[in-house]
Amino acid sequence: ATLCTFYSRDATISASHGALKNWTKAAADARECIKMSPLFIKGYYRLVTALLELNQLDDALRAVRSGLQLDSSNPQLEKLLRQIKVRKAAEKKRQSANDAQVSASSGSSAKPRTADDAVAKEMMDLQEQFVATSREYNVVNANISKAQREQKVADLTRKELRGLDEGTKMYRGIGKMFVLSSHGECMKHLQSSIDVEKAAEKELMRKKDYLEKRRKSQQLNIQELTGSLVDRDNETQ
Questions:
Q1: What CA–CA distance (Å, rounded) separates 53 from 31?
Q2: Residue 173, SS3?
Q3: How many helices (H) and strands (E) in the chain?
């Protein structure tokens, strides 16, 4: 068996312990998996999941950040990071409420925190990421349209040249200059231009697909965080 097989097996064992709610053992196996293969992203996911169940939020935060250093846009780790931040913020809010009760019982005039800075910052970060991704998505879309237009123009020109005698001399635009070229050279140049633009369009389409998935993931993250805030507000009422 290859090392990769063992890494995968350790992650599977960790998942099995998780399914049995043995989160301490699941965390230990996930740590061993990461130790054997620091680049195996599933190991980080299993470790963070187990640490969350054990309510070890600080350790979970360190682990998820280590995983995101390897794959900064991993949707599963991003979701776990949001969960950690929301739970830490809720924990801080509960502590503030407890402190306020203690202060009230002791006659202190100190006021509890009313703003959840951590959650507000997380929401702001998510919104900024969504705006940046949407901007990049729009740029890619514009470049796809440009590549398609270039192909269409080159193809139409090529069709026009097919109707001319092959011995016809013509000028081909190169930057701001025009160079006297043969019929064959112009046809070859047009075909080359079409091939280049097709390759560019194909690459841009892949990038568009990636950005579309990323944008949807970020939008879902915002919705989930907003939902968590609403649920928590209802609980405190």
A1: 15
A2: strand
A3: 7, 2
Q: Nearest to residue 56, comparing CAs of 32, 26, 93?
A: 26
Helix axes 41-53, 57-70, angle to 10 degrees: 160
Crossing angle of helices 3-19/23-36, nearest 10°? Answer: 170
Q: What is the DSSP letter of 113?
A: P
pLDDT tens-digit series, residues 49-74: 999 999 999 899 889 988 888 887 88
Q: CB-hemisphere CA count at 13 Å for 204?
A: 19
Measured CA to CA, the distance from residue 9 to residue 54 in angstroms comes to 23
* Token pair in block for residue 89: 């913020």
* Close Cβ partners of 5 (under 8 Å, ≥ 6 residues apart): none
SS3 181: strand
Per-residue pLDDT of 91-111, as tens digits, reads 877 777 776 676 666 655 544
Closest C-alpha to 76, from 57, 100, 49: 49
